Amino acid sequence: MKSVIRLLIPLCAVLLALLIGAGMLLSLGADPLSGYLTMFSAAFGSVEGFSETAVKSIPLLLVGVGICIAFRANVINIGGEGQMVMGALLATSVALTFPDVPSSLLIPMVLLAGAVGGAFWGAIAGALKAWFNVSEILSTIMLNIVAVQFMNFLLRGVMIDPAEVARGTGIPQTMRLSPHADLPILIEGMRMHLGVVVALLVAVGAYFLLWRTSMGFRLRAVGFNPDASRYAGISVPKNVTAALAFSGAMAGIAGAILVFGSESHRMVTDGSSTGFTGSAGFNGIVVALLAGLHPLWSIPSALLFGGMLVGANALQRAAQVPSALIIALNGLIVVFVVSSEFFKKRLLASGRVDAEAREENTLQKEKADA
Amino acid sequence: MLDSFAVIIIVSTIASGIRLATPFLLASLGEALGQRSGVLNLGVDGVMLIGAFGAYYMVLQSNNPYYGLLVGIGLGILLGIFYGIITLYMHAEQGVSGIGIYLFGLGMSDLLFQKFVGTPRPILPFMPLHFPVLSDLPIVGEMLFQHSIIVYIAFGLVPVMSFILHHTTYGLNIRAIGENPEAADSLGVSVIATRFSAIVIGNGLAGLAGAALAIELGIFQQNLTNAMGFIAIALVYFGAWSPKGVMIGSLVFGLVQAVVLQFKTFGVIPRSASDLAAMAPAIITILALVVVARRFKQPSALTKPYVRGS
User: Fold this and answer.
1) Which of A89, A138, A282, A285 would you mutate first to test chain B, the one with the most B CBs within 10 A?
2) pLDDT band at A358 (very low <50, low <70, confident <90, very high)
3) Among A4, B139, B184, B246, fewest CB within 10 Å belongs to which?
4) Which of B24, B111, B304, B307 to mutate to test the interface with A (most CBs of A within 10 A)?
5) Does A137 touch chain B (CB under 8 A)?
6) Residue A188, C-beta contacts closer than 8 angstroms, at least 6 positions apart
7) Closest approach of chain B CAs to the CA of A151, in angstroms?
8) Which CATH number is A58-305 given?
9) Type and span of the H or E element at A122
10) CA separation for the pair B304, B180 (Å, rounded)
11) Do A338 and B46 touch (CB under 8 A)?
12) How far A210 CA lies from chain B's nearest CA (Å)?
């Protein structure tokens, strides 16, 4: 019963948002039912559609899994956007520097570079919180802005495609990156590429990290009760920094995959962060919240939101409803899912030994064993 | 001695810096009020976008910039009521729900713009006010006394808000519930009602900030604010939660932007270097956050939902 409530209430929140979305569709002169059906069949109704959905889900899943780790350590990481950008920049510069390295080596190299770039950017916010008492909410927001301007600086400057300079068009993008770094396509003729596998592996890895390693235990303990953790000899500053570094690493991989899995195989900027990330750094928060901050549940959750993005494009073509509708709906889903915590707590509070208390017990037991 | 050309450039840079500071100032004054009462609102950028679109559309239809300002405030208030309900009654996590509001505003403003306007069409901007004598003063006149009404509203709000915060019962209540809601509650101050009012006023100002931006620029486009609302939040920390501090921060930001723009138009620095310069405000804010965290204390109850008897 308790676990049903835990699952049902966030789902109700999504349904409520979709209901409001239906109202919006209606007022925009589109039939909501056929609109949602168009979206669903575009996203999940065919192999091609699903392949597209899977590709769109990759950054959402990676950022979402990172958010799971951060939020479990009670660190509110709003910096996914900037961490994606920094990961992508470092990965792109690796590909530009070593274009002749064979694929079997270059692909792991660029993914690792993405992770390092993102982790570095996350760790800055972590260190600022841990040792200078700066709220990570604010520092990550500021670091987003810095990252975007840094991207613009590099892509208009040293990293710009020489052909753009020669032609005088000056579009801020890199040259076509080394084909050795192209993420291999999984199914012939479709867009689904190796990034899907990477994202799934990272999700499973994060699950093991959180619940099967002492590192993960420390992260959760710090999030659960920092005072008790300190008393038990766990360094809170170190783990806060680690949580943001892990979270950033995953966003950084997402950024790298956006570049090397793209159709143009370039890194491009339109001057804003959303232009590059498609707001995945923020939407990943939605994915993680809906998944109850669980890395494995994040997989279907990311597919749902990836599907909504694919569906929104179909809707735009079929019913002339701007796909921005989905960004607005995602926002409502965040608000409703966060608010639904209130009802969840109320419903769960009716029983004394609720899931939260059980979690506390296991945490304490694990601590006693350690 | 500077030649007259340099003087003209400097004067126009300062004047445009003041204009550019205005939306930041309005939004961060609103955010400061909310934070003083203990509520963090990360949705400012989204509220600004909605206010900006609403105002733009209104002016497009009515050709009256003042109606646009009213629409901006009105939409901000509506979103404020929504945010008040979810944070005060549902106890939603403020850091995350604010991002929800941001995404909502980002998507909604773009959706409405594409559906009802489509191609960007310029709108009637504000007319600059003309004060007798003052506006005609050399140098000072152009710098300070030839702006549109919204500039004077924004800067006029600074002493007003200072006065309200420090010399009225309402201001005392706001500060009290931001520091120690239990104590204030025990003295009969309604924590929820006071916070609600602060959130609504704060969001109204954010909506006004968006309206001011759109009307001043005379256009609307997708993501018009480009993270200005987030900078406004940072300015509250930069200014250590005081209206005067927030004003100084906004002016610094506005002037930096104006200087960068001036450099760009004269080609003094390459485009890429101006991107680097655009990083400066965010980096300065991070450094300021380090200092502020050491020297000033944020409102003790910030981001903590108030539940009686807990």
Assistant:
1) A138
2) low
3) A4
4) B111
5) yes
6) none
7) 9
8) 1.10.3470
9) helix A103-132
10) 11
11) no
12) 22
Query: Judged by CB atoms within 8 Å, which residues 82-101 of B form the interface with A?
Result: 86, 89-93, 95-97, 99-101
Distance from CA of B258 to the nearest CA of A (A): 17
The predicted-structure confidence for A54-80, as pLDDT tens digits, reads as follows 999 999 999 999 999 999 999 999 999
Rounded to whole angstroms, how far apart are CA atoms B205 and B44? 10
Name the amino acid, one letter, at B91.
H
Q: What ranges do the domains of chain A cover?
A: 58-305
Q: Where do the H-state alpha helices sit in B85-148?
A: 94-116, 140-144
* Chain B residues with CB-CB distance to A324 below 8 A: 106-108, 110-111, 114, 222
pLDDT score recorded for residue A352: 44
Domains of chain B: 14-121+147-295 (1.10.3470)
Q: DSSP for B160-196, please give it.
A: HHHHHHHHSHHHHHHHHHHH-HHHHHHTT--HHHHHH
In this structure, of B18-27, B135-144, B222-231, the range with the lowest mean pLDDT score is B135-144
Contact indicator for B277, A153 with CB cutoff of 8 Å: no
Residue B46: name the closest of B97, B105, B116 by CA: B105
A20 contacts chain B (CB < 8 A): no
Picking from B45, B119, B286 by the largest number of A CB atoms within 10 A of its own CB, the best residue to mutate is B286
Beta bridge partners of A173: A268
Share of chain A above pLDDT 70, in %: 93
- Does the beta-carbon distance from A142 to B286 stay under 8 Å? yes
- CB of A28 within 8 Å of a chain B CB? The answer is yes
Token representation of residue B56: 């733009």
Helix (H, G, I), strand (E, B) or coil at A192: coil
Q: How many CB atoms lie within 10 A of CB B55?
A: 30
Q: Coil, helix or strand for A84?
A: helix
- Sign, CA dihedral B217-B220-B225-B229, equals positive
> Is B141 part of the contact surface with chain A (CB cutoff 8 Å)?
no
Alpha carbons within 13 angstroms on the beta-carbon side of residue A238 total 8
CA distance A184 to chain B (A): 33
Sheet strands (E) in chain B: none
- Prediction pTM value: 0.89
